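go over this chain:
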Amino acid sequence: MITIRELNGNDFGGFLHLMQGFYQYAGEKDFDRTSIETLFRKLVDPASNFVCVAALTGTKMIGMCSLTFGESSYKAAPFAWADDLYVETAYRQQGIAGLLLQRVKQIACERNCSNILLGVGITEDHLQAFYKRNGFKEMPCKLFTLPLT
């Protein structure tokens, strides 16, 4: 049975394990445990604008998706940014990512968000199709980043 819930202060070990897998999947080589500990503390702090939803089978954490909340002058309403949707390889194609997105949507609605934004690689056709099947619409803009570090 799969349980979907927000992270709590006892979840660091499972979160650390998932983040290691996520970094490998993303091709990121700079895994820093101290930074992950800092991130985890923010994710479980009820005063932050950041939450993480986890998928568990029993006590084993097998998937996650984070949400960051912000204000939009364009919509004059809060929005949510979904990030780091990740499910361990052995548990993919079982509907877990869809369950994570359902919970993310519920949390965003509870916070009166106007929409949920997310980024996906322009060559990741399978992920684009997955998000469209889950109600996301392609935007007529391109996302840019300005690295500051």
Notes: DSSP finds four helices and five strands in the chain. The first strand starts at residue 2 and ends at 6. The domain at 2-133 is CATH 3.40.630.30 (Aminopeptidase).
